[in-house]
Amino acid sequence: MAPRIGVFDSGFGGLTVLRELKTSMPEADYLYFGDTAHLPYGAKSVRTVAKYAIASARFLESRGIELLVVACNTATALALDEIKSAVRIPVIGVVEPGAERAASKSKARRAAVIATEATVSSHAYSRALEKLGLEVTEKACPLFVPLVEEGWVEHPVTENVAHIYMDDIFGNGATHPDVLLLGCTHYPLIRPLLRRVVPQHIEIVDSAESTATKVVGQLGSQSDAGLPGQLRCYATDSTDKFRRLGEKFLGCPINNIELVDIES
Amino acid sequence: MAPRIGVFDSGFGGLTVLRELKTSMPEADYLYFGDTAHLPYGAKSVRTVAKYAIASARFLESRGIELLVVACNTATALALDEIKSAVRIPVIGVVEPGAERAASKSKARRAAVIATEATVSSHAYSRALEKLGLEVTEKACPLFVPLVEEGWVEHPVTENVAHIYMDDIFGNGATHPDVLLLGCTHYPLIRPLLRRVVPQHIEIVDSAESTATKVVGQLGSQSDAGLPGQLRCYATDSTDKFRRLGEKFLGCPINNIELVDIES
Fold first, then answer.
1. Could you report the per-residue pLDDT of B80-119, keeping only the tens digit for each?
2. Which of A202, A233, B244, B261 has CA 20 to 30 A from A239's CA?
3. A238 interfaces chain B, CB cutoff of 8 Å
């Protein structure tokens, strides 16, 4: 029988992770939860992010998922242990797979991580990368999410902002990371732009693909002879907006969205 | 006895309104509520904004305020009537005072309004200005809030973004507004920058001063011989962050901040 996988994010960004999961395991059924009434998590505190993430995780657990992917860097960085304690199913976050991927690509053993303010403040990526023997430079890029949501993924302003942020990392000749890890699920949408801005010898990696690989490893290899699975989405704010923005992130139509309230 | 006035906003922006209120009525006691766990409201739906705004208004009412100022354009635009129905005290929003100020300044009887996506979609400013006999051009400027929160209030990127947004309004020779109304409490912080970008004959106005005037009118003239009143702040997310960012908006130290939870 096809597995039933829950994917949780503060909004739409986690759909970039879901896209990779669907490629790796098309036969699975997916339940995607976007906590759009409380987004963005990126500038909020540990206490607040943990509260929302746990409520969302319990909602998905109550819908019968057998594994939960926390496809939100901020929620993973701030609250993965709390989420794991709050549910009885296995939980996979995006920080460790992302760090492992960066480590596998870095010859210099030095990585740069860009993420939201909250993810950077948590130093979750630093800890994960240092455990793998890498030196780390972290940089918060709080304008990238609103620029992506404005639809300016190929825009001179975004390129200008990217130059300012990237100069902070790579303009300093003293450190020489050779890998740039995208520590926020919105950032893959500006990957082509970042490719132009970042020095050519720097490899750009994100967590989506390596997270999908980890999920496949955890669930064991499935028969891929079956029919493609179902996708059901839950949002805590406007389902219309979820559909409109979500389809950009997922790259295909979303038909099945339900409005839910996790506060009552 | 000094009045006890409640001021509500999704975050810090409403402190620009509080600043005007303190200038107009320094002897009043102020209770400021920043719903920072749910900010920003600007891209959320009517249902969600109304729910948070009502919970916040009831919290302030329970603390004994005699008048509530909704110092958040989005909450006023989307949910002023719902807030009024939910509490027993008088409620003043920022949209009407802002529209009245714009109308008093416009000779051409044409105003442009810039605001968040949700405020623009509600057309609350259009309705208020049209009632006063003005033609209206509305424009959502979703990047201004994150740019202000990044601290880039005098920055080439913000100026570039402002040119792009303002060209959409004033680049079209067919319409000639002579007033620009700042329909978001974050925008007064980039008013000097907007002054450079917007054609010189355009008058820039915001709601803060006219809202303060309306509050004074409603409460009647107070003795100003008394001592300055107290300020007490409530936030639904990190009080440290509230203090740090809030002091920029208020322009003076904030000592008295309490973390509250309006969801339980």
1. 999 999 999 999 999 999 999 999 999 999 999 999 999 9
2. B261
3. yes
Q: Is A168 on the interface with B (CB under 8 A)?
A: no
Rounded mean pLDDT of chain A?
93
For B219-232, the pLDDT digits (tens) are 876 655 578 899 99
**pTM > 0.95: yes or no:** no
In a shared domain, residues B86 and B10? yes
Residues of A in contact with B37 (CB under 8 A): 38, 44, 48
Question: What is the pLDDT, as a whole number, of residue A264?
Answer: 60
Q: B53 and B121: one domain?
A: no
Top residue of B10, B239, B263 to mutate, by most chain A CBs within 10 Å, is: B263
DSSP 3-state of A134: coil
Top residue of A10, A120, A263, A264 to mutate, by most chain B CBs within 10 Å, is: A263
pLDDT at A180 exceeding the cut of 70: yes
Q: Helices in B2-155 by DSSP H: which ranges?
A: 15-24, 46-62, 73-86, 95-105, 117-122, 124-131, 144-149
A92-96, B55-59, B146-150: the lowest-pLDDT one:
B146-150
A264 occurs within a structural domain = no
Residue B117's CB is within 10 A of a number of other CB atoms, namely 18
Of A47, A142, A150, the CB nearest to B150: A142
CA distance A17 to A25: 12
Residue A234 scores a pLDDT above 90: yes
Answer yes or no: A72 catalytic: yes
CA neighbor of B178 nearest in space, from B215, B206, B137: B137
Domain extent for A128:
95-206
Which candidate from A44, A48, A157 shows the least CB-CB separation from B157? Answer: A157
Q: Within this chain, do residues A106 and A197 fall inside the same structural domain, yes or no?
A: yes
Say yes or no for a CB contact (<8 Å) between B37 and A48: yes
Average pLDDT over residues A240-248: 89
* ipTM field: 0.87
Catalytic annotation on A252? no
